[in-house]
Amino acid sequence: MRNPNSCSEIARQIENRWTVKPELLRHPSPQGIHLSTENRVFGAGLITALASAALGGVDHAYADGPFNLSPFSSSSAAPTSSQASSESSTSSQASATNAEPPPRVRNDNPRTTSAGFDPEALERGAKALREINDSSHAKKVFEVMKKQEETRQTELVAKGAEFKALQAQAETERQKVIYEEQKKLAQQQAQIKSQMARYEDELARKRMQAENEHQRARNQELVKMQEESAIRQEQARRATEEQIQAQRRQTEKERAEIERETIRVKAMAEAEGRAHEAKLAEEVNRRMLVDRANAEREKWVAAINTTFDHIGGGLRAILTDQNKLVVAVGGVTALAAGIYTTREGARVLWSYVDRILGQPSLIRESSRGKYPWSGLFSRGLSTLSRNNKVSALNKGNGFGDVILNPSLQKRIQQLASATANTKSHQAPFRNMLFYGPPGTGKTMAARELARKSGLDYALMTGGDVAPLGPQAVTKIHQLFDWSKKSKKGLLLFIDEADAFLCERNKTYMSEAQRSALNALLFRTGDQSKDIVLALATNRPGDLDSAVADRIDEVLEFPLPGEDERFKLLKLYLDKYIAQAGARKPGLFSNLFRKQQQKIEVRGLTDDILKEAAAKTEGFSGREIAKLMASVQAAVYGSKDCMLDPNLFREVVDYKVAEHQQRMKLAGTEGSSS
Question: Which residues, by range, are in coiled-coil regions (predicted)?
């Protein structure tokens, strides 16, 4: 029995889907007719449903679902549509069997059946089919539908080929996974085999090691037993020798006691005899001395009495005679006035001579004498000896007692030669600045520079300027006036120059210091042909910019390197140790001086000095000199006055530790400030 609702729905779908526009029927074209696959399938299903309804062999036929029936294929499309029809009918029957039958609806419309079926929709669908069939272009429409179906079949074939390719790729991937698993299994098996081989090798090695340890332990026990036996034999031999030595010492001790007792008795007898003789001689001498003293006392008493008698007589004569008293008082007064006048006049005259010809008070040391005539003989001898020494040093290319870095020493020698040639050609001198840590040889280098260039030198320190106060300007001008009087030319060396040549904008700088600085800047404003100004400082950055502008040559004096420290150690070892007890040449130099004890040096080689040079890293030349002075003091403090490597190393280690502690304290103070 047909479902009226399904039939009505079929009619409506036929009307909606198969209503063809007249324009399409008049002018059919592949672009003008758009029949989708769903419409084609729906049409085929509709035809099948109508045929089955006409035959009356099926109770229910629905056209609601899609149908896979192609009206242009008799072989492939027919089974598909029949299968779909059978599946739909089966599902419909199952649903009809399971569900309760719907109640009958009363038919109030005369055009509908009693079951509620409306045939108008079916009629309109049949009418649409007839219009398509009667159209002159119906064949083209169906050809277009056939081409679309063929295209769909081609797409299905392509999808099948793609699915087969995917299956082949999946099979390839599966084979690849199987290969990888087999490869991993083979690797694991090889790894297990190698681990087993290593484990067996380790077991064999441990077994051999255990056997070696056992053999070594047995050998050690044998060696230990042999050593114990040798020790016992040595102890027995030593005990026998000690017993023999003890008996020998006892015999010698008894012999020495007998000899000592004999000597003591003999000495006591001799001492008693000498004491008796001395006692007798002392008594005689005492009586002679007493008699001589009494005679001398009586003589001096008589002389004193006579002198006082004469003085008393003269005083009585003067006091009693008024003329003599006036003459005596006038003579004493005139004598006192003459002495005072002579003394003050000589003082004034000497101060004038000292101001005109003398050395300025700021000079601490100079190669020139205090006065032009002072020390002529001594300066001649020193000049002769210095010339001999300079000639010897020139032959050996030395630089006196100054040990410097080779490049710095070469630079100073070049400056000395240039300064000497400048003086000979009457050209202006060049001013210099020496800077570096304390004790690196700046002052000694200035002396040697002056000596090698043939100039006089004068040494002053910047700390002497500040205490002068307002007189500092006058003293500075006197210093430069005195320096210009040198016929050879003078090298004026100012040590600790930053003490009064610092920046003028410092708040703690007094007006007198600024005036002294201005006076020095005035005297050094032009290049001089008489004075070489050499400044030395540990802090070059504190100098005034105008002072720095007057500097032509700047030399840095670094701490000595290991080679320089080795040379300094050898130099001061010879000065303080080897030549400690030697007499200096001169007629009167050793007349009233006690002879020093000579120091004996044993085993102090260059290797030990090089070791000390390596330990004293960071030491200045002055610290190395003080180190060797400490070595000399330690030698004089020993009993035998001998220097050996142990004592030398002990003093060096002590001074190195002291230097490190001093550096640590300096660093702590710097960080705290």
Answer: none
